[in-house]
Amino acid sequence: MRFSVIIPVYNRPGEVEELLQSLADQEYDDFEVIVVEDGSKVPCSEVVNKFASRLKIQYFFKENTGPGLTRNYGAERAKGEFLIFFDSDCIIPNNYFTRVEEELTAEYVDFFGGPDATHPSFTDVQKAIGYSMTSFFTTGGIRGGRVKLERFTPRSFNMGINAEVFHSVGGFSNMRFGEDVDLSLRLFEMGFRSRLFPKAFVYHKRRTDFRKFFKQVFNSGMARINLSIIHRNSLKLVHLLPSGFVFVMSVAVLLSWAYPVISIFPLLYSIAIMFDSLLKGNSLTVALLSVVAAWVQLYGYGLGFTYALWLWVVHGKRPNGAFTKNFYR
To answer: How much is the pTM?
Structure first.
């Protein structure tokens, strides 16, 4: 078996059906699919059974342990030379594996990742969040863009790794947030090579509203401090930018009451986001929502980062993330 696709799931049967349908439509077929239910109250076993005749598929149900250990559970049962990890809220273009094979043939690497895109069927809010998570203006391009401020680090929504390499480093850790970045950093530290496969993209839904999106990025900000504690040299300038954004923009908004001219800075940033989103082919509605998504993302991440730093420096507590009961929501 060339590839083993591993999908951790928690209470998302509808999304799993879309994902499995996209896998069944692939033009390449040398892969198996392993769906691991992470203690769901709304299981997707009936959905998986629908594809038993169209995919080489296995289904497992286990107690809830979080996404990293759930992926490890699937990896232990995989037969493929390469493990491919997708989130359950992804839709896979039908030429995905063809593109991966082309990249591996052109230049072999031990692990890799691809970017994400928004599907036409996504809601306007999902498209706005998708823009925000991939825009140079918000992330510095670190999530798969060609222009970036940091080396590309594969994320588990679209990540491939040689199975022997995966097992040699012990797979994912038990971190509930940032576990995919932790794995990538450990692989880098061990000398394994990675590369962005720009044409091997997936359609990634992400969160469905701004409240859930805030929780997600807040946890990501907290996870970055945790990662910097574990990996001493992993914290880069780009990771500090959201916290700097929160401080500068908050001061600008407060001072604008006394000095209205200062309000031009948050206004100009918002206009830049809106026009960039429009230039990327989004509608005016999505462009306006992109402004909201960008502010939610930067404030959520920046506040999470600052809160975790406070816990670590002032209270000596290792930050493990907030909203843990709603991790998947």
So the answer is: 0.88
